[in-house]
Amino acid sequence: MPIHRIGVAADHGGFELKEFLAAKLREAGYQVTDYGNHEWRSDDDYPDFVTPLARAVASGEVTRGLAVCGSGVGASVAANKVRGVRACLVTESFSARQGVEDDDVNLICMGGRVIGPGLAWELLQVFLAAQFSAAERHSRRLAKVVALESAH
What we know:
This protein is α/β, with parallel strands linked by helices. It has helices spanning 15-27, 47-59, 73-79, 93-103, 117-129, 136-151; strands at residues 5-10, 31-34, 64-69, 87-89, 107-111. The chain has six helices and five strands; from the N terminus they run E-H-E-H-E-H-E-H-E-H-H.
């Protein structure tokens, strides 16, 4: 299934990287929906932007998501609180690909204070090109994760 609709979100720690990556996505032909923040504000809070993005990913409003905060950790924690979201903090290409292929990750998180724009763009491209393998063992494991969500 082609990935065309990408949602993005960031707080002050990831704002600059989000803006860069959103522009690169648009140049590459993706439809980008920006869930904020829409301006740099030192006192903003990542859950205010990551939560609407995660809900959009879970509902199918966007195909995949990108969340950026200072470290990427907070964005990952917040996104994973939304049922149907499988978010992962990524700093290298193996996990960007393998997370999708094996674990059906649908939202990538990055640290705007951790990685530079060149690496971030490379990781995002790898993430968007990857597809869930649906191999029996991966589908079985994913079903167990979904059951965890349903139990709580």
